[in-house]
């Protein structure tokens, strides 16, 4: 593939290649918590405690490590004076795509739940996320952070 | 948030909530290798060895475990007669969004490399992926799988 064939990817990055720097970036972005921390900053700068509040379940230690790794990858920046973290422009692009990925997860769960309810039970009734999501859509109404 | 506010998410899934089934699905999808295996199947059904070839660096053991987890989540299905794996419709949606995420990684790397070359070196010259990607776009031309 050449630059002219894919104007979005002029540097020939290929995440399927183990040695490509985009593979490391993918691993960093999809490391447990990273993608949620990135997405939490889409609405604007947040302080450490505000991010911890948005990303339910993250520990101080994990949040600190995650922020450090994302800053090293230049996807977020810290404003030391204000004590806040914000997305860089590259980080914002990735965070936006992460939200789209989340939407596809929600749609997938809807379809998986619907398939279960229709009796399409080929993969086993308690397997994977389908078991967690059942019955219907009621499973998360209490636990959800709004 | 109500269903009427977000028609894409009628079941009130919220990946930021630790107890939401979408959080488990996110963790499954972004587990090391899963997202690459999903994306590798976008062009059509593949045999085990073909997936291993596309996803550079994955071991037989990891590929086997990844395929099992994705099948449990009903994102892929195995055709036992043909010996091939293919995406389910929910899996296809997630795989498509994964490709978009990869594109945002490529763009981010371009911007990070450009910023380095422009002398914008606030985060340290060898930090994170920026150090790996430099110099210019030449870093992956040999290692890339086409």
UniProtKB/TrEMBL annotation, chains A, B:
Q: Note the superkingdom of the native organism.
A: Bacteria
Is Transcription regulation set as a keyword in this record?
yes
Every HTH hxlR-type domain range: 20-113
Q: What is this protein called?
A: Transcriptional regulator
One Pfam family named in its UniProt record: HxlR
Q: Which SUPFAM superfamilies match?
A: Winged helix' DNA-binding domain
Keywords (alphabetical) are:
DNA-binding, Transcription, Transcription regulation
Transmembrane segments annotated in the record for this chain: none
Please name the source species.
Bifidobacterium thermophilum RBL67
Does the keyword Manganese belong to this entry? no
Molecular function via GO: DNA binding
Gene3D superfamilies attached to this UniProt entry: Winged helix-like DNA-binding domain superfamily/Winged helix DNA-binding domain (1.10.10.10)
